[in-house]
Amino acid sequence: MGQARLRGTPEQRKQAAIERQLALRPKYIKCNNCQAELSDMTPLDIADIKGIEAAFAAHCPHCGHDTYAIKGEREAVAQMHMAIEDAAGAQAQPGVVPAANRR
């Protein structure tokens, strides 16, 4: 019997992965454009992305800019950052979530 089966049904494993990601959600992220505090974030599907622990997107209602929060291994985060730039067709500004802002 495989190890995955011992961890529960596919639905239970998926829910556990979602809960692990949501536990890493910061209280807010600052808009990279206007610096507004954005607390309404959408978790991104990271199921097939090796090296990424959590990723969230927020749309700023003030300036219309999208900002992302990504946690994971440095190289994986850089690759995801480049993929977001390619999808958006524009250069993205990296930022850091201060430790005091983490849950």
Brief synopsis:
This is C4-type zinc ribbon domain-containing protein. Helix content is 32%, strand content 20%. It has 103 residues and is of the alpha+beta class.
Question: Can you walk through the features of this model?
Answer:
This is C4-type zinc ribbon domain-containing protein. This protein has 103 residues and is an alpha+beta fold. The protein has one domain. 32% of the residues lie in helices and 20% in strands. The strands form two sheets. It has a three-stranded antiparallel beta sheet. A two-stranded antiparallel ribbon has the order 1-2. The longest helix has 15 residues, at 74-88.
- Overall shape: it is globular
Poorly predicted parts: none
* Overall residue-averaged pLDDT value: 83
Helix content: 25-40%
Number of helical segments with 4 or more residues: 3
* Main β sheet profile: 3 strands, antiparallel
Q: Which structural class do the helices and strands define?
A: alpha+beta
Distance between the termini: 37 Å
Query: What's the alpha carbon Rg, rounded to whole Å?
Result: 15 Å
Number of strands: 5
Please give the domain count: 1
- Please report which band the strand proportion falls in: under 5%, 5-15%, 15-25%, 25-35%, 35-45% or over 45%: 15-25%
- The strand order across the widest sheet is 3-4-5
Order of helices and strands: HHEEEEEH
